Every structure is written in C-alpha cells, then in structure tokens.
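Hey Z.,

So I finally got round to the S-adenosylmethionine thing we talked about over coffee. Here's the setup:
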Amino acid sequence: MIRPAEICAEKNLPVALRLAVTDRCQHRCLYCVPAQGILKCAHGDILSYEEIVSFVAGVRRSCGLSRVRLTGGDPLARRDVTTLVEMLAALDLPDLSLTTNGAQLGELAADLKRAGLRRLNVSLDSLRPETFRQLTRGGDLAGVLRGLRAALACGLHPVRLNMVVLRSINDGEVAELARFALDLGCELRFLELMPIGSAAARFSEWFVPSAEVKSRLEQSFDLAPLANESGSTSVNFAARSADGRSGTIGFISSVSNSFCAACRRLRLTPTGLLLGCLARPEGLDLRPILRGPPEARDPALAQAVQEALSLKGRRRCFADQRPMVGVGG
Ligand code: SAM
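And the result:
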C-alpha cells in the first residue's frame, strides 16, 4: 500500500528505485555479459553503503518512494551486502527486495532474512544443468537450486522466479519451469529478451514474444487474468493445471508491450549515475551530491529525480548498448 506521505509532490506518484550495488556477477549470461567480459568499475568509484542509504533516504524525504530493489551485477557478489540490507531495512521502506542469480543464496539467505529482507527474485533460465552451464557460461544449477530452497526454508516470501526465454536455447522448458515454480510455491515471471548489451546482436535469433510463451503454456495450464499490482510491469495470471497445480504466472513484455508511459522506475548504477531508463544512455552523476554538503542534499536529489524522470521516453527505444550487468535489470 502506498502511504500518503510517499506520494511524489510534483507528479503525484512515488518513484521506484533499482539500485545496482555492484557490477560484479558470478555468472556471465550469454544475453547479458559480452564474451570478453566488461570493464569493471574501480573500487573508489563505487558508492559506499552510507552513500547508497543517504540517496534512498533523501529521495524518500524529497520525492516519495514506492519500492526499492537491490540488483547488479549480482547484489550478493558485493561484500557484506547483508549490512546494506540491514541499513535499508532500518529506514522502514514501503518495500525492499532483491534480485539475484542465486549462486550465493545458499550461504546468505538466512542472514538476508535476519537483516530485514522479506522477499526476493531469483533468475532461473533453465532446469537442465548443461543448458544452465552454457547459458550462464559456467554457472552451477545445483548450487542455485540449493540457494532457492534455503531462501524458502528461512521464510523469505514471496520468492519469484524470473526466466528470460530464448529461442532454441530454453524455450522448450517453459512448461517445465512453470510446474517447478508452482510445486515450490513460487511465482514465475517470463521475461522477454531486450535488445540490450550482448543480446542486441543476437536479438532476432533469440527473441520469443510473450504471446508465444503464453500459448505454449496454455497447452498445460488454464490461465485466468489477475488484476495488475500497482506499479508492476508484469501482466499476471492465475495458473491451474489439469493435474492440480496452481499459482501465479506473469509476463513482462518489455518489447512487445512497452509500459514506458506509466513507468516511475529510476536506476542507480554502482558508480552513482541516476538513469531515467534502462534502455537510454543519459544519466546524472549523483556523486557530487552524495559526497557534497549534507544540507544541500535533499533539494539537489529532488531536482535530480525530476530530471531523471524527464529523461524517460514515451516508448522504449533501446538506444543504450550498456550491458545490463552494469546497470541492473
Ligand atoms: N544478477 C542478478 C540476477 O541474475 O537476477 C541481478 C541483475 S540481472 C541484470 C537482472 C535481470 O535482468 C535478470 O533476471 C536477467 O535475466 C535480466 N536480463 C539481463 N539482460 C537481459 C536482457 N537483455 N533482456 C531481458 N532481461 C535481461
């Protein structure tokens, strides 16, 4: 629920923040990280936890916040990320979540829960060890599944699974993933591939529209539309199979059904660039604000937020070729 105090003064809507806390990732997914890897940010350029918290608190005070999500890179690849979760949880935000590939979830799930995290998303593109290894360039499916079970066992809820569907790589697994997710009591979201980063060059070969994924699923599940969650980019359905499985399945159709007009999401990169849109190159460097005098911070952040919101397009244009690993998905 959005509290009245969280409403953004100017546009009457709160903003949602995605914080990429590192550009490091344990996986190098084919569609995300270029084969040669990425040029890593220098340690001194990366925002400290105090700077990230000061940004979130300042945006909350000056503009209003609906959701905060930690991403990356992989947020669990940043040292002591549970400390950051604890610091953010102390702000009593309306919603705090995290997106991870699950590689380090087995060791960190219980600490994250203790630190105040309630829910999380796990990216899981295949249940076949070899496909998973190839897609992630070396990832270990068994370790991710252990992490997922650890997250469920310690009471993180809901745990959502995200699957990016790629033609001829994992598109034969959509029903299998749906059965797996529902059996675990997880929501599942199918993500359309976006022509960003290393996906741009292979986009026409790999892209599978949500409509096609949905009709494949309908061979095994009844899908009844659900009301949209406010601020969510996912179109959700109540899924029920003939053999009694049931749960929620959603589709995030970033390409075939652009949701730019309603988007209030802003992204902060690990080095403090505030982006109005994941698919556009323009951003505002917040380090001078976050490293400058505290008394000037709130007005400067409020202005930066409005400028970043004005950088959004009415339709998604995919003009930026920065890999998602450095921006946060
Ligand atoms: N490492 C974390 C993870 O794997 O969830 C967080 C960062 S990752 C960039 C966030 C999400 O972006 C993942 O679900 C990933 O599959 C998705 N992603 C990355 N590149 C994408 C692309 N080109 N199109 C669609 N989704 C993409």
